[in-house]
Amino acid sequence: MIRSSPNSSFIWIKYMAFFLSLNEVEKARSMAERALKTINIREKSEKQNVWVAYFNLENEYESPLEDAVVKIFQRALQFLFSNYMLRASS
């Protein structure tokens, strides 16, 4: 499925949920990272959906909670800020 629609956050998030249902948190994280690397930079809303899912994953499963959530949040902010700067310079 991913090969036919690599820019679909819906499919990536479904795979993340599948791994979480198997209690495979690391595989779900890996899937989130792959999604962020694979989804085309122009598909901003699709990437944002993955960031939200990744943030929720860390919020639910990471220990110590604060460290992981802060790291993911900082990375997501960098992504969002870089998109804002690209729009402002256009």
Query: Helices and strands: which structural class?
Result: mainly alpha
Largest sheet: none
Per CATH, which architecture?
Alpha Horseshoe
How many domain regions? 1
Number of strands: 0
**Estimated share of beta-strand residues:** under 5%
* Helix proportion range: over 70%
How far the N terminus sits from the C terminus, by CA atoms, comes to 34 Å
Which radius of gyration do the C-alpha atoms yield?
13 Å
Enumerate how many helices there are, as a single number. 4
Shape: flat
Account of the protein in words:
This protein is mainly α. It has one domain: Serine Threonine Protein Phosphatase 5, Tetratricopeptide repeat, CATH 1.25.40. It is flat, with a radius of gyration of 13 Å. The mean pLDDT is 86. It has helices spanning 9-21, 25-38, 44-61, 65-89. Helix 1 (9-21) packs parallel to helix 3 and helix 3 (44-61) packs antiparallel against helix 4. 78% of the residues lie in helices and 0% in strands. Residues 11-79 form the Pre-mRNA-splicing factor Syf1-like N-terminal HAT-repeats domain. It comes from Lactuca sativa. Keywords: mRNA processing, mRNA splicing.
Please outline what is shown here.
Keywords: mRNA processing, mRNA splicing. The protein has 90 residues and is an all-alpha fold.
Core attributes:
90 residues, mainly alpha, Serine Threonine Protein Phosphatase 5, Tetratricopeptide repeat, 4 helices, flat
Task: Please give the structural blueprint.
Elements: H1 9-21, H2 25-38, H3 44-61, H4 65-89
Helix pairs in contact: 1-2, 1-3, 2-3, 3-4
